[in-house]
Design brief:
five-stranded mixed β-barrel; alpha/beta; Rossmann fold; pyruvate-formate lyase- activating enzyme; 18 strands; OB fold (Dihydrolipoamide Acetyltransferase, E2P)
Length: 450
């Protein structure tokens, strides 16, 4: 295929940051082989939708997006519709049957098929193999096309998961846990830093398991130590910590290493022993409270984020009250609350005593209202303090001119620090600044640059 005949590709990425990295790898493969990428979907010859298939709401968003893009085959320039990612892997035959406009589908372990997928007609274009994503010789040198702001990037350190949580279908379509090799991760991180990335965010299905499958029992701490030595990186943050496997030496490393964000993202999922047992999570409220206490003892002021599932099969009012009491006692900085999603192929799908949706929604609202009060009280104590803020640029959500984040606020999921004393938006380029907090809101802070 000559360069002049290469189609123009439009890309839509849905779901979690791990999926976003997959999209950036595919975009990198396309860019390296001469394809042009357009943000205007109506101009694209080929549209690729990288889907999420985790829970009902994510699947619905993926299906709605596919149908929206399918309309461009008649109303736009689109000649080929490609569906990739988790939904494509989980329901490959079904979605091709139900949405005949889809021309090509492949899963997250077949990213190399992107070059085949975007070809038009009978032309034979260039091809590479990155099907075995984390063992491929191609990946260490594969430049990603970042879709995040140029000052931050996600680093996907592994694929798959070995846990058997009864509510989760991910191991079924993402496979067993596979760590990427540390030299490859270091090289990729150096390349990102050279591009101007100041904040590196590690993502994985189970970040605490990194390295254990390749003979590195303390792999995550070894990796973090190396990453903090890379010139140009100011903040290194890690997400998705399985609670039972977070060692004290990692907590101490975060306390001791200046470049590691004082931030812990630990999805506890619940606090009631019977519910945790049915989730196949193990653990207990008492164990989790001791863990948070250890984190705060070694890292005073650290941000702690967690997530919970309400409406799990068999969850009683007593179970839910245990969860409310846990959250009230611990006072997390940020909490995400998800409704249980009944997913085929999971252990929970076969459980009896399903909780009515109305009850689950009530519980979610009650928990979120309680957390809003906790967040508001905690943020109020920040007024008058001076903190380091990564100033990200113009705010598009409020009348205040600029917005940024403290190290205790992760991108996309937590609140912001809003700046209201800048005469013009261009006064402060993206960088780190000392900011005095002057006001607090429910989830955000307001401050002025010193």
């Amino acid at each position: 295929m000559s360069e002049a005949r290469l189609p123009k590709v439009g890309f839509v990425s849905l779901g979690c940051p791990k999926n976003l990295v997959d999209s950036e790898i595919m975009l990198g493969a396309l860019a390296r082989h001469g394809y042009s990428i357009t943000a205007h979907k109506e101009e694209a010859d080929v549209i690729v939708v990288n889907t999420c298939g985790f829970i009902d709401s994510a699947k619905k968003e993926s299906i709605d997006t596919i149908l929206e893009m399918a309309e461009l085959k008649t109303q736009g320039n689109c000649k080929k519709l490609v569906v990739a990612g988790c939904l494509a892997e989980r329901y490959r035959a079904d979605i091709r049957k139900e949405i005949p406009e889809i021309d090509f589908a492949f899963g997250p372990d077949e990213l190399g098929r992107i070059l085949q997928a975007v070809q038009l007609g009978d032309d034979i274009g260039p091809d590479i193999t990155i099907d075995a994503l984390y063992t491929s010789k191609e990946i260490p040198t594969m430049p990603r096309v970042l879709t995040t702001p140029n000052y931050m990037a996600y680093l996907k350190i592994s694929e798959g998961c070995d846990h058997v949580c009864s509510f989760c279908a991910i191991p079924g379509f993402r496979g067993r846990f596979r760590s990427r090799l540390m030299p490859d991760l270091i090289e990729e991180s150096r390349r990102l830093a050279a591009q101007g990335v100041k904040e590196l965010v590690l993502v994985s299905q189970d970040t605490m398991a990194y390295g254990k499958d390749i003979g590195m029992p303390e792999g995550i701490t070894a990796l973090l130590r190396e990453l903090t030595r890379i010139e140009g990186l100011r903040w290194v943050r890690f997400l998705y910590c399985y609670p039972h496997t977070m060692p004290d030496y990692l907590i101490r490393l975060v306390a001791d290493e200046e470049r590691l964000c004082k931030y812990f993202h630990i999805p506890y999922q619940h606090a009631s022993g019977p519910v945790l047992d049915r989730m196949l999570r193990g653990g207990s409220r008492q164990m989790y409270e001791r863990q948070v206490e250890r984190i705060r003892k070694l890292n005073p002021g650290a941000g702690i984020r967690t997530s919970f599932i309400v409406g799990f099969p068999g969850e009683t009012e007593d179970d839910f009250q245990e969860l409310l009491n846990f959250v009230r006692n611990v006072e997390f900085d940020n909490v995400g609350v998800f409704l249980y999603s009944d997913e085929e192929g999971t252990g929970a799908f076969k459980l009896e005593d399903k909780v009515p949706r109305r009850t689950a929604n009530r519980r979610r609202g009650q928990l979120m209202k309680q957390q809003a009060g906790i967040s508001k009280r905690k943020l109020k104590t920040m007024v008058g303090r001076t903190v380091e803020v990564l100033l990200e640029g113009a705010s598009d959500e409020t009348e205040l001119l600029l917005k940024g984040r403290m190290e205790t606020q992760a991108p996309d999921i937590d609140g912001h620090v809003m700046i209201n004393d800048a005469a013009e938006r261009q006064v402060y380029p993206v960088n780190f600044y000392p900011v005095e907090i002057t006001e607090s809101l429910d989830y955000d802070l307001i401050g002025r640059v010193l």
